[in-house]
Amino acid sequence: MEFITIADLTPIIPEIIVFLTACIVLIVDLFAPEKDRAFTLAVTTIIGLVLAMLTETQLHGKDISGFYGTVVADDFSILFEFIYISVAILTVFVSRHYIAENEMNFGEYYVLLLTSVSGMMFMTSGLDLLVIFIGLEIMSISSYILVGMKRNLAKANEAALKYLLLGAFSTGFLLYGISMLYGATGSTLLPEIIAEIQQNGAGNPLVVVGMALVIVAMSFKIAVVPFHMWTPDVYTGAPTPVTGFLSGAAKAAGFAVFVRVLLTGIPLDSPNWKNLLWILAVLTMTVGNVMALRQNEVKRMLAFSSIAHAGYVLVAVVVGSSSAISGVIFYSCAYALMGTGAFGILTIKDAGRIPQTFDDLAGYGKRNPLLALIMTLFIFSLIGLPLTGGFIGKLQIFSAALKDGWIWLTVIAILNSALSVYYYLRVVMFMYMREGALPEGSDLSAKTSGFALTGLIGTAAAVLYLGVFPDEIMELASLSILALL
Questions:
Q1: What is the torsional sign of CA 337, 480, 130, 181?
Q2: Phi-psi region for residue 387, left (φ > 0), alpha (ψ -120 to 50) or beta?
Q3: Helix (H, G, I), strand (E, B) or coil at 71
Q4: Residue 374 belongs to what H/E stretch?
Q5: What is the percentage of the chain residues whose pLDDT exceeds 90?
Q6: Domain assignment of residue 451, given as a range
């Protein structure tokens, strides 16, 4: 009889810590005094996440696998898990007062946040399609509930239901694809699948259909056109901190799995596959940006823009070179911070209300100069202006595509990036160049939570750091690629 050993558990120690933290939060929620409960739960959650992050640093560079090679702690998974944990910590910082004001349950919220992070970590560590599937479901089920946490709001209930139904469809595609790949290759381990395909060729109909179904399922998760239908409604209807968490951590997790599966499990060297991904990349960039131009709600605009950002990542997947994939990793890190940060600003009440439309942001620069400045930085990074993390990420991806001869794809990507300038700068224009009419009884004396402000300032500093000193993260991204190739 085979028993679980310490060696098996070592690569998933961070996941175990996050999951145990969720269990501790449940217990604390039951027994903590009502007066201190919100603060105690937030601090407990942050301590658990920081402990998991410290454990990740001890695993860096060791490339440890466990459970018969089905999970691994390599530089690739560790870097992405840092992203998830960082986004989760920021989400805790900006959520505290939002949860109280919207009468959401603190304990349930933090537990679901932690279990969702643990699912993302399992997804990224998985070298077996079934492990990836289990991690994906842990993340997804937690996310469905988080989206519907505002139970008394019809829009949130609608968003949760749409997310659940379309998520179930994508799960069906993934399971069917896994079963076909298993039938064709006799394994669900990514290294064994690619070895079998390379030996016997990728012409087997089971392999082709299985690969297509897996790609479709992953495209749902990162909102690739035409599998993006859920994104605007879910991002708009979900509680704003949850929207930030989904746009940062969940999307980064989707990128991570997309890259790992396509690099280590499913060979896409065929021109037909490349052409298909080329078309998907162009559609995703263009549809996302064009639809964002038409929006009047800020959250909905950011939702469509997140679709466009998935298109930029697909450009790197089409190219497939090590420099392009390292660009994906860097860009995922930058986008997770700037996307979550932008939604984080929208969680904070301005004159007694949460900003919803562009008109709500009118005069924001005068009323909240520090928050407006931070939001401007996030917007500039989303555009891809110099001295921000977004600029370095786009530069790495576009230059890699140009270097490998994907000229038209690069031109289309640059044009789409230029198109995004219009709707992103609308945010800045309304904040600084429009005078807004405030509702009667607006409380201009209310101060921003120090908890939230600390998280947002730290995130803004990280975005600037990535833009000014990108070498360290870029080197880590390059090293993580070696773990995949």
A1: positive
A2: left
A3: strand
A4: helix 369-383
A5: 47
A6: 268-485
299 in Cβ contact with 359 (< 8 Å): no
Three-state secondary structure call for residue 65: strand
Supply angle C-alpha 153, 293, 276, rounded to 5. 95
CB 330 within 8 A of CB 477: yes
Nearest Cα to 76, choosing from 423, 406, 443, 481? 481
User: Computed over its alpha carbons, how large is the radius of gyration of the chain?
Assistant: 22
The distance of Cα 31 from the centroid of its chain, to the nearest Å, equals: 33
Q: Give 261-306 pLDDT, tens digit per residue.
A: 887 766 666 677 788 889 999 999 999 999 999 888 898 999 999 9
407 part of a folded domain: yes
Rounded to a whole number of angstroms, the distance between the first and last alpha carbons of the chain is 34
β-pairing verdict for 71-73 and 64-66: antiparallel
Which residues share a beta bridge with 128?
Answer: 189
Q: How many domains, in total, are found in the chain?
A: 1
How far out from the chain centre does Cα 274 lie?
24
pLDDT in tens, 384-421: 999 999 999 999 999 999 998 889 999 999 999 999 99
Asked if residue 52 belongs to a domain, the reply is no
